[in-house]
Amino acid sequence: MDFSMFMVPYVLAYTEGRRTAAEVIDWDLKLASWADEYGLTGAFFAEHYTIGHEPSPSPELMIAAASQRTSRIKLGAAAHLLPYHNPANLAHRLMWLDHMTGGRYIAGFAPGSFPTDAQLFSTAKENPKMMIEALDIIEAIWMKEPPFRIEGQYWTVDMPAFTTQWAGPHLKPLQRPRPEVVLTGMQAQSPTFTEAGKRGYSPMSQQVSVDVLRQQWDHYAATARDNGYTPDRANWRVIRDVFVADTDEEARRLVLDGAMGETWERHILPTFKSVRARGFQRPYALGSLLVDPGMEVEDLTIEWMVDNFWLVGSPDTVAGKVAKLNDELGGVGEIVTVTFDYSADPEPYRHSIELLGTEVIPRVADVGARATAAA
Predict the structure, then answer these.
(1) All structural domains of the chain
(2) Among 5, 19, 126, 314, which residue has the least CB neighbours within 10 Å?
(3) Can you give the pTM of this predicted structure?
(4) What pLDDT, in 10s, does the model give residues 286-333?
(5) H or E, element range at 244
(6) Helical H segments across the chain, by residue range
(7) What are phi and psi of 245, to 5 degrees?
(8) 294: Cα within 13 Å, side-chain hemisphere
(9) In the chain, which stretches have pLDDT less than 70?
């Protein structure tokens, strides 16, 4: 099993005037360099425009900067919000990024779920349809030989034939036929997982309960098979927050009294409990995806999540929780941990990443090797 990091970023101090944009950027790049140093597999960067707690309008710039500070890890977007870009322009920027990173780039795409971002770009309720059209255009630019013309509802692309005068069109991805593409999903019957299965993309599950995760995989796998693809659990990424310390007690304290607990308490958990996201019609619909069968949304507390949901503890404890989650899901390829703003006192967080890479990952690998040998 691999482990990656996801820089949303969550920065409550930024909206309160206690962090500058430059400091937010520097912290995320430092996290990427620690991930590279301590043996994690990758780093993902988000795209938001109007969400002050999650300032990150350009994952491409973050990936480009991180590529200059790292040498090994994969660098991806989670995700480029396709309705807010001309897909022909984005397709070329991402091909260039693939070359800039030496083939370490992972393409993550999404329709965008925040209503204020959609308001900014005046996309109304067209985001899901715009994403599908943009995917068709990007795939064509990456893999289809010119000339071709695509006339869509939202964009028209007229790719010219090669000419010796301009020596182009000339650009294709470094990774052939294209970089890995990841789509994220939250609902049990996620529309984005439907699209991932249809196109042979990789699924990335948001932080939801084990019951919902199982349903997500079954839905994705069935769709993939129906469209001629063989679903591979090695390509399944699951987001689950991780914090490792020398002891269980220390890890629990650093979460509950630190940026991770504060961010969930003040921002993420209220969002899960109250926001009516795209496609959800009932209050608490998001929160219900987090709870186990028999629980109520009101039962969700930071203390419960530390003990029962997140992967928090000593290296032995976290490795055990990872193995248990993997068994419950029937196998998963990668755990993606969201990062938090511990920049005011970075050493415990740096140590957490170090322990994850140098202590937890080897333990998880040993468990996997023993299970394979026993089978």
Answers:
(1) 2-374 (3.20.20.30)
(2) 126
(3) 0.94
(4) 566 887 777 777 778 999 999 999 999 999 999 999 999 999 999 999
(5) strand 242-244
(6) 12-15, 21-38, 59-69, 87-100, 115-121, 127-143, 191-199, 210-226, 248-256, 259-263, 269-274, 285-288, 302-308, 315-329, 347-355, 361-374
(7) -140, 180
(8) 0
(9) 274-288, 368-375
